[in-house]
Amino acid sequence: MSLLDMKLDRSFDVFDSDRDGRVERSDVLAVSDQLAESLGLAADAVADLRGSLAELWDTVFQKMDRDDDGAVDRQEFRAAFRARIVTDQNRIWDRIRNLSNAWTEIGDRDGDGMLSRDEYTSLLHGMFRLPRQAFDDSFTALDRDGDGRLSRDEISSAMKEYYTSQDHAARGNQFFGRL
Q1: 9 and 74 in contact (C-beta within 8 Å)?
Q2: Does residue 88 register a pLDDT over 90?
Q3: What are all long-range contacts of 150-158, with beta carbons under 8 Å and residues at least 24 apart?
């Protein structure tokens, strides 16, 4: 299996919230619900994130559903994501940046516009239900300037690298935890 396939599978698993091997609209939106619950927030506190996730479903995921069954399976996800990266880079990165900005705003509890180690690990643990330790290690790799905080640019850059880099040592590969 290629490095990109490994990363796409990890990403697919993040969005497949009910673990049935299919990503549906409800799975994608559940990411915001999981985050609100884990951080003890009201649903309206994650409204922007939920809106970004709905847009991601409507403009990206729904188009991946080649057999029109209302869900995206792993093979559809891999094939479509590879094609979109090549043909639609600017639009997909704008959507990813909007999504990362929305959840960064939610996770930024001290309002400094950046994520501390604790804010980052709490946010990703809450969204993706993966062990906090995985994100603690990721934080260290993603903090490119070593200032103990992740800027929106560092986060967006890491997400882009995660989905495009073929370099096993690329920092962004750790966005969803160590591969």
Answers
A1: yes
A2: no
A3: 150/114, 150/115, 150/120, 151/113, 151/114, 152/97, 152/100, 152/101, 152/104, 152/113, 152/114, 155/100, 155/104, 155/115, 156/93, 156/96, 156/97, 156/100, 156/101
Burial of 33 (0-12, 13-18, 19+ CB in 10 A): middle
Q: What is the structure's pLDDT at 85?
A: 67
- What tens digit of pLDDT does each residue of 4-26 get? 889 899 889 888 988 999 999 99
Q: Which of 172, 128, 167 is nearest to 150 (CA)?
A: 172
Q: What is the pLDDT of residue 89?
A: 64
List, in order, residues 6 or more apart from 112 with CB less than 8 Å away.
149
